[in-house]
Amino acid sequence: MKPDNNKLDVQRFSRYSNAYLIDGTVLIDAGIDPREIAGYDPQLIILTHCHFDHTCAAPEIARMTGARVAIHEEDAKLLDDDYATGSVLFGKRAPEINPDMLLYGGEIFESDNFMLEVIHTPGHTPGGICLYESETRSLFSGDTVFPDGGIGRCDLGGDLSDLIRSIELLTTLNPEVLYPGHLDVTDADVPSQIGLSLANARGLAV
Ligand SMILES: [Zn+2]
Ligand SMILES: [Zn+2]
Questions:
Q1: What CATH number does the domain containing 27 carry?
Q2: Which stretches make up the Metallo-beta-lactamase domain (predicted)?
């Protein structure tokens, strides 16, 4: 089912947070400025969590393209909260987002070229998710883990114990490429980088 080069077609937009367009059809996170996505035609926008810098452009992109918007139901509840969405940090109100689809974890979005699984990874926010494409071993980690042992902050409505459990779950995967919500994409021994994130998160708990 995969093209033989075994590479996922990923276009990255990185002005505010990383947004990734998969195979031209699925946009993971939306960023702040919808003009970044102009000229592309996603059919689905999957938000990794409710924070302003990942979601703000979603309504306008959805209006321009007709794309549906999906988010975990725990974060859907927070979308109109100026504080929980971090909008106040940008001097803004929460953007008005009405999701078309609520996620719970375990959903699979697939096409001929990819099979993206939703993994519920609370901690940075209650309804944070990662997406894993097992064929190409591509992990889209939102703000749960970042390269070089980075972890998402828990002081914007998150929970450190949840984050530790979520990162433990990520260590059971064997990703080849990490596509984080901020910073650069990396393919340098990703399991070790996630192991470092786990150690760092556990270190904060003592
Ligand atoms: Zn965030
Ligand atoms: Zn972020």
A1: 3.60.15.10
A2: 16-182
Residue pair 71/29 in contact (Cβ under 8 Å)? The answer is: no
User: Which residue range forms the structural domain that includes residue 14?
Assistant: 10-205
Asked if pLDDT for residue 148 goes beyond 70, the answer is yes
Rounded distance between C-alpha atoms, residue 167 and residue 202, angstroms = 10
- In 3D space, the residue among 7, 103, 21, 104 whose CA is nearest the CA of residue 57 turns out to be 21
Look over the chain and give the mean of its residue pLDDT values, rounded to a whole number: 95
- Does 75 fall in a domain? yes
In tens, the pLDDT along 24-69 reads 999 999 999 999 999 999 999 999 999 999 999 999 999 999 999 9
Where residue 20 falls among pLDDT bands split at 50, 70, 90? very high
Ligand nearest to the CA of 156: 1
5 occurs within a structural domain:
no
Nearest-ligand number for the alpha carbon of 18? 2
Distance from Cα 131 to the centre of ligand 2, integer Å:
15
Ion ligand 1 neighbours, Cβ < 5 Å: 51, 143
pLDDT (average), residues 170-186: 97
Domain contains 4: no
Q: CB-based contacts of 192: which residues, under 8 Å, 6+ apart?
A: none
